[in-house]
DIS3-like exonuclease 1 (Lichtheimia ramosa), 1067 residues
Amino acid sequence: MTALTDIRGERSFFRKTRGNAIVKLVREQYVRNDIPCMAECCSSCQQLVGNTMHQAYLSAEADHYVIPDMSIVMRYLEILEHEEFTGIILSQTIVTSLQQHDKMRTYRKLRQIINDTRHNSVMFYNEIFAATRITRLPGETITKRDWRALCSMANWYSRHLGKPIVLLSEVFHQSDYDPSPHNLVSVRTMKQYIDQYWPDHSLLQSLVHVLAEAVLEDDLERIKMSSNKNKSDPAVSGYTEYKAMEELEAGIKSSRYFSGILKCRGTRDSGYVNGGSQLGKDILVVGPENMNRAVHGDLVVVELLSENNWTTAPNTIAYGGGSAEDEYEEMRLTTNTQSMRPTGRVIGILNRNWRSYVATIQEDTPEGGSFHLAIPLDSAIPKIRIRHHDVKMIQNQRIVVRIDSWPVSSQYPNGHYVRSLGPIHQLDTEVSAILVEHGISVSQASQGFSEASLKEMPLDEPDRPWQPEEKELARRRDLRSLTVFSIDPPNCQDIDDALSARDLGNGLIELGVHIADVSYFVKENSLTDLEARARGTTVYLADRRFDMLPSVLSERVCSLRENVDRYAVSVLWTMDSKTFEVKNTWFGRSIIRSSCEMEYEQAQQLLDGEPVATNLDRELGNKLRPSIQKLATILRAMRQNRLSKGALELESSEVKFKITENHKITDIIPKDTKEIHGLVAEAMIMANAYVGKRVYDGFKEAAILRRHPPPNPGQFDMLVKAAESRGFSIDFSSNLALSKSLQHIADKCRDDPEIARLMKTMATIAMNEAGYISSGHYPVDQYFHYGLALDFYTHFTSPIRRYADVVAHRQLLMCVNDEVALADCGTKISSMTQDNKVSEICDNLNLKSRESKFAQRDSTELFQSLYVLQNTVNGPLIETGVIAEIRSNGFFVFIPRFGLKGPVFLVGKDGKTTVPLSLQSGNSEHDEEYLPNCDIQVDMPTAITVTAATLPKPIVFSLFDHVRVSLKLRKSHAHRHMVYMTLIDLQSSELPSKKMTSSEMMQSIIANNNDDSDMTTNQQHMPNTTTMSKQEIEARRELKKSTKHQGTMYELLEQFRKISITENTTN
């Protein structure tokens, strides 16, 4: 075929201008006849694709393909997005219509489907292809013309490929189709199609019914446009219609309006939009009226309110738990809360970022009726109004819902029910809820891989274990004679990395890092590769993991198990044995045989020189000890060199759980900090840094790198004030200065290491997030990794669990001209070397790694709450903690024992003070009885002061003070149970209490039996009662109990008189 570039056509359409005038637009088009069909089974069209490794083709195994029309795209997009819905041919006709009608959100969703190669779907340019292009007939409507264009395209595909084509439409039917001679084209509604091809798929069957009845945003727009005669429903008080898109765009361009992602904190009471460089501050959006139907995550347009309406940012602890945002976003709102912030109102939506939400039907929902309110698990999301024919079936269940629309006349958004996850508060249900909330795919959540993907796996069976091929052995560097070993947590199955160290003689030593060769088994654009790319990472939760790769690879063939031959990609450094200067570096494919799968505890014992390591053969230990000690010598020097350049040693609060088979959590264990952990990490950092530089040298425009940008000065405000409250200073002029400041604090706080630990944690939170980039998208001076103090860095050492590492492996092996890597590319250009493709991969990986981190955090909090639930059945769970954050209504306490941070509320939801009586008595039973007439004063972000008439002096709770707390669980029907704490006492300063005699105690009881309003006056005339002792508190409690049982005060006082007589006789 040859392109016909001299044949021209025109496409005209009408569009409304900013002034509501209708204008005709004409676009010139060049008609071609060399547009490929993008089908695997068509060899002639594949020649037209050229020498690029195109990622999406129509699968040759499919028995039919699908062409949706506009009615299907607008109503059933959620079904088209489903992982199992494949073989879609998206027409240029539909794309053009979406662009003309400002349906960019729908267009982007369709592009995501096309770009997700698991869908095996393509876009076809039928409007400029000579064989499918049609012209509009006189008097013909646009809708009818577009339908004929789709029919022409379906006819061409059926003739060209000889396969059935299904036209999907809710408007046109089989009678509206002019059959082709081959008669391989059929017209179906979505319901007919699902019934025919997915009769037993319960989710799709349910969705097709629900979506058919849903009122979508586009339905509302049509209703609004057509309601010229009839008045539309009145708007909910405070809500207003959004401004026209043309006005929004003009306002943004002139800086009259501001656009950004709306982020809500904790609840929907407040949120913010980044004001950007023009404003230099976040814009607060306070209250549902100003949010104006925008939802957390939407791309909104905000109009600033007058300065009279500007306010300070809220700095309270949310009473109902938080949203899915990370701690950095929380810190943005709570730093500098005393300064006035601009406020604004949402006047338009540029993009709805609605997703699947986990929710629970509201408890007081009546059994009758079709519409019900679902309360989302994420408290930043509003209640969603859904329709369900039998609410009993989904009550007390975690369900998945989607938002369809939010009309101005409705207090809540309209949505639809998708599926049920299971009964609330059951472990498997709550884990499934975490996966849905963080966008973990259904296939990964079910730990499943397609049958076609599993066919790509190497054979590895008990009676026929996988063995290296002789031909491949000849191509690799044989390192099986080296003493190679892995060091991992106990029971690790997916072993990515192994180490080696040896003397070479002549004053030289060799350090080796050996990484599982995943890219040898997972070829680019194979089904396994596409699935791994979409998953992005293995997701690790507290009690389970969800793999990126099939277990035959992750646990067996790729895993570097002991005493078996395994393919690896190795980095070998030849160094000076005294200065550790690197003389030479070798990268390449190798064959290794690990001598031992060591645990960290065993390796540390060998490093410490112990004669025998636990559960390790003595002879094997003697063999490994010299290598481990040599490895430690090298890596200590490497680490010290990096620290001298400004590398930061920051903190995390990772924990692991001891869990029985019946889900009983017996213990929570904080992350271990043995030296061997840091040494293994240093080896991985070194390998990642060298590989990062090597792939950049080979692919300067498309190298996958890990970038950690330096923080802005304002991000350290909270850390600086926290340090000053303890007499320290923080120099953050560079990473080296910050590192020295934190180390100085650690040296001075050896008697109280939690202070240094929390300050390092605050520094971690203040940092910008590290992310993957393609080198072609940034200048060289922005590649720097701030936290590690490295000019070049990537991820290379964990390809079993991170897809970024697989990309790095492919790029590295092409850089060193590996024979197999080059053969895999063949004559085609790999997407691994194209800047735009690598950048797209990086964007997905950044999203997936972020959501994986949040899922892991939510899982940890879930199991911490289970531990508190199980361990408070027979009595209170009392622990010592450190005040980690100060807020206006209380503070957060960090419990090092459990790696848990929870709130202590000093002000209740009703605004009344809730300072516990236990603060004076020291008795944990008094933690839910409160001191009367308290006053709270906050000095953000370092102290909170409590004053009361019954206190001898104010009580000051300062950042990093030690407190005793009782851990409790706030149970919820719609949300997860939340761990909170009640205060027992402040350990850093003892409150003085005067021991009272019985007679003084009786006087105090009589005086304090009056109303709270009279209590202060009485105490002014009673110098002996300015302080309530523990005895008096107990007496007052007994008095309170006695009056409840209709006893008189004189009966109680008689008991104390007898105590007094006894006291006098004993003295």
